[in-house]
């Protein structure tokens, strides 16, 4: 498996993690995975890589399969097909722990929660391989309603990781979002957590943006605005669909404004490429 580009903690721009390889709500993809086929997986991986993703998220979680075996095969083939690192994504810590040692150092693991049974198998495996781990700011009690509560869960994960010899630099925290349609202050809580993460935890932050707009119209407009705010707050990585209209341009523009793309080099490169394709 080959990886293109620098180690995750050496990257200065906002990392883009392509989220499309996920069978939730995608019957055709789920059907192919049930048959052990990876045609859609590889097609989605290549399209996201071409659109500018830095990392490809791979989730094959459906009932009735050997998730560990299929996750390993899909992750390996996706990385070979794109030359990009992968983010192995599962809600089953034992599946993640089984796959981590078979993938290269620098693989991103999504994710652990603040619960011991989630943390221990994954952190132990990650400690042995140099994997990066996403910690989710929730536990069996749910998602804390305020920033301090979410930071406390993150600190619990940070401390547990340190016990396995994993430094903060190999951790990224997802402080989660609740739909703004049901909780008007939810975006502000997430942004407060992102601002606090670097100073209080010494770790990166990652955000899956799509949940924030659930129940609202013009969802991609909300995603773009929220991403700009999050990047200015210090976001390290965004879990997004890079094929969504305007999403990559929003991230690139926000990086320029946040001082993460000196002289707009990446922004201009993308602009010229789109101009050449007639898409600017």
What portion of the residues fall into strands of 2 or more residues?
5-15%
Cα separation of the termini:
34 Å
Helix content: 40-55%
Coarse morphology: globular
Quickly give the structural class: alpha/beta
Q: Overall mean pLDDT score?
A: 94
Strand order of the largest sheet: 1-2-3-4-5-6-7-8
Considering the chains and any ligands shown, give keywords for the structure:
280 residues; globular; disordered N terminus
Structure overview:
The chain has 280 residues and is an alpha/beta fold. The protein has a domain of 79 residues. 46% of the residues lie in helices and 14% in strands. The chain is built from ten helices and eight strands. The chain has an eight-stranded parallel beta barrel, surrounded by six helices. Helix 8 links the parallel strand 7 and strand 8. Helix 8 packs parallel to helix 9. The N terminus is likely disordered.
Task: Summarize, please.
This protein is an alpha/beta fold. It is built from ten helices and eight strands.
What is the topology?
Layout: E1 15-21, H1 27-34, H2 39-51, E2 55-58, H3 67-82, E3 86-89, H4 93-99, E4 108-112, H5 116-129, E5 132-136, H6 147-163, E6 171-174, H7 186-201, E7 204-208, H8 219-232, E8 237-240, H9 247-257, H10 265-277
């Amino acid at each position: 498996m080959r990886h293109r580009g620098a180690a995750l903690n050496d990257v200065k721009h906002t990392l883009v993690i392509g989220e499309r390889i996920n069978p939730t709500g995608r019957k055709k993809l789920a059907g192919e995975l049930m048959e052990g086929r990876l045609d859609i997986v590889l097609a989605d991986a290549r399209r996201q890589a071409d659109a500018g993703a830095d990392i490809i998220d791979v989730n094959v979680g459906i009932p009735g399969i050997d998730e560990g075996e299929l996750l390993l095969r899909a992750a390996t083939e996706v990385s070979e097909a794109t030359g990009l690192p992968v983010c192995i994504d599962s809600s089953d810590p034992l599946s993640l722990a089984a796959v981590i040692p078979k993938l290269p150092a620098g693989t991103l693991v999504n994710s652990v929660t603040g619960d011991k049974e989630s943390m221990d198998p994954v952190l132990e495996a990650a400690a042995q391989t140099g994997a990066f781990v996403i910690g989710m700011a929730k536990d069996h009690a749910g998602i804390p309603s305020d920033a301090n509560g979410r930071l406390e869960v993150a600190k619990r994960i940070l401390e547990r990781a340190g016990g396995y010899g994993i430094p903060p630099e190999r951790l990224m925290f997802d402080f989660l979002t609740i739909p703004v349609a049901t909780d008007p202050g939810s975006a502000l809580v997430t942004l407060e957590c992102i601002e606090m993460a670097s100073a209080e935890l010494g770790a990166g932050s990652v955000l899956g943006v799509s949940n924030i707009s659930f129940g609202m119209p013009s969802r991609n407009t909300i995603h773009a605005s929220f991403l700009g705010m999050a990047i200015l707050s210090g976001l390290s990585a965004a879990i997004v669909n890079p094929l969504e209209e305007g999403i990559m341009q929003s991230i690139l523009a926000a990086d320029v404004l946040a001082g993460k793309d000196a002289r707009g080099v990446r922004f201009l490169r993308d602009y010229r490429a789109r101009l050449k394709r007639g898409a600017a």
